Amino acid sequence: MKIASYNILSGGFNSYGYESSLPERLELLKKAIGIINADFIGLIDTFRWDALYSISQLSELFGYKKAYCINLNDIRLKEKGHNNGITVLTNLPVDQFKTITLETRDAIKTTLQINNNELDIFTVYLDDLSEDVRVKQTRTLLKYVDQTKPTIIMGDLNTLVLEILKN
């Protein structure tokens, strides 16, 4: 099983603007994702994708059985006009996709069924400016982790969260 995380920078657009109707680098992203060839891939910074594509369009576009796309719902980013998000693509059996809130931003919890066992994968995009906010987001994230299940936390963590390791 191959699992990957990829920060695609502004959803494949050349900027965080709204001049283009579709991502200019979409074909390059499709090619790169094809080369990565992961069974599960978390795409970070899928700017505007929740407004541009349906779940079925994303699945078809990238050749995956399942997709899930969310907006971060970060008020600070929305005020800047950044409709940033996270997208998950997978060919693995999904029990459920769930949007979870980590203080100021949303994340994706995916529960997979692997060999009659559950595996949780959290795809996150932690705050890009404040270590204090990242610590709060990480503490909230850890409340969602089921200690009895194998779990992967991936995405753009933006830094090491050393404060968490002290406790």
From TrEMBL:
Gene3D superfamilies: Endonuclease/exonuclease/phosphatase (3.60.10.10). Residues 4-159 form the Endonuclease/exonuclease/phosphatase domain. It comes from the Bacteria. This is Endonuclease/exonuclease/phosphatase domain-containing protein. Pfam families: Exo_endo_phos. InterPro entries: Endo/exonu/phosph_ase_sf (IPR036691), Endo/exonuclease/phosphatase (IPR005135). GO terms for molecular function: catalytic activity.
